[in-house]
Amino acid sequence: MIQPRTSSLFLIVGLLLVLAGVVSWQAGWDLPLHHFFRLRGTAWTSTVVFLSALGGFGVMGPVGFLAIGILLVRRRAGEALWLFATVATGRLAVEGLKLVVTRPRPPLIDRLELVQSWSFPSSHAAGTLMTCLALAVVIGGRPAFFLAFLAALTIGWTRLALAVHWPGDVLAGWGVGLLWLGLALRIHTPVRVRRVPALSSEDGSRP
Question: Which of 27, 41, 77, 166 lies at a 20 to 30 A Cα distance from 108?
Fold first, then answer.
């Protein structure tokens, strides 16, 4: 079950990650980190491109809609609506930020994948984190949260390995994802709490 402090934790960590992304960019740390993380050679390129594609909307979108469909079939319409609203608005917010910031991607000669959109923040990093973490909230349990963060970390790494994003972009993408989930949980926590009726001593029942 989601604890009340979870949304605060997401908001704090998300804000710190966004700030770290901005600092990495403005302080000039992105360039040496970019060269450190990008793949050397092409032996693993196709595998990393495949992994990276799993974090795109072409995969995360159908996964989200499938989860929404399952929730609706199970008569969990409130959770389905929360999941759709959280991920859909979050993705729109990320694309809007890209258009506002208009940061160019790393040099074309370094990239191992052709990408045309703006760079900051990483929509792959943010979208994967928002989708998988929102699913973990609905599913519940530590394994779901572990897998959500593992997926986000993996996708973020692939964007750096393919040299299509600066490190600051990925940090900010994770940060925006956490911030959005934190705000969504502040507005509504989509977890059904099973209430156990209190036992009254007046009717002779005992714990």
Answer: 27
**145 — phi, psi (to 5°)?**
-70, -40
Q: Which two tokens stand for residue 118?
A: 């703006």
| pLDDT tens digits, 140-190 | 788 999 999 999 999 999 999 999 999 999 999 999 999 999 999 988 777
Alpha carbon of 154 to those of 75, 76, 77, 78, 158: distances in Å?
A: 33, 30, 31, 30, 6
Q: Inter-axis angle of helices 123-139 and 57-73, to 10 degrees?
A: 20
Quick one: which of 174, 193, 194, 192 has its CA closest to 182? 174
Quickly count: other Cβ atoms within 10 Å of residue 97's Cβ.
20
- Residue 113: partners with Cβ closer than 8 Å, 6 or more residues away: 49, 52, 162, 164
Task: Give the whole-angstrom CA distance, residue 77 versus residue 180.
Answer: 21
75's tokens: 């008569």
* All residues at 6 or more sequence positions from 105 whose CB lies less than 8 Å from its CB, including other chains: 111, 115, 118, 119, 164, 165, 166
pTM of the model: 0.86
